Amino acid sequence: MNTRAVSNEFAKMRHLRVGLVAVVMVVAVLGLSLYTVVSSPTFSPEAPGAWNGLLAGMSLGIPLVFPLLLAVLASRQIDIEHQGNGWLLQATSGLTPGGMCRAKFIALGLIVTAITIGTSLLVLATGKLLVGIIPPVPFVHWAGFTGCMLAVNLVVLAGHILVSAKIDNQLVALGIGILGTILAVFSQGLPAVAAHLTPWGYYALAMAADYRGSGFVALPLPYPSIAALAVVASVVFTIITYRFDHQEA
């Protein structure tokens, strides 16, 4: 990958309010996570499964917030090429449309990785310092959940980059982001087989905790399913972007 192309993508972000979108994503998920434990009548900071309350909050907050805002990030990063005929301009300097998409994915992927991990760490720190949860942090489960959500976020981001690059009208991409949010939330009530049918359904599959019976309980994480999604998405993204290379800018 051309490191200069990736650097150029970071330079383009200066005028795209990426930082503002990132802050909204982090604050929204943090607020929803805290609301989950505060609104629960059975939550207690001393309870053995107290951390499951925050994990359940993130399991709900990330599907509510990230799908649409990932679409916004991808759309804004791609739309500048549509508006300024950047595809043709970059092609004259030797950077193909597919190469630009891959550069944009790397640049935005680093941002999304920082947002996802930062959100997870902030919720963890808030649970310890503000909520005052006493039991030890389930680091392995917490890290596994963060990794699963990161993988799904990157897959959804890659999909939106392809859609935004192929379709000039970015309202279509944003509409897909809204639909993705709906699918991510409602997939939590669907059978696991149905949740596997769309990338957004994997948000539901990767729930780390939920309210069951009289309290929050930890849920097993579907590592094989998430790994399979990542592999398939990587192959599809690579094939499609290399096809873009052979199309006219």
UniProtKB/TrEMBL annotation:
It comes from the Bacteria. It holds the Pfam family ABC2_membrane_4. Keywords: Membrane, Transmembrane, Transmembrane helix. The chain crosses the membrane at residues 20-38, 50-73, 105-127, 139-159, 171-190, 221-242. The keyword Mitochondrion does not apply. This is ABC-2 family transporter protein.
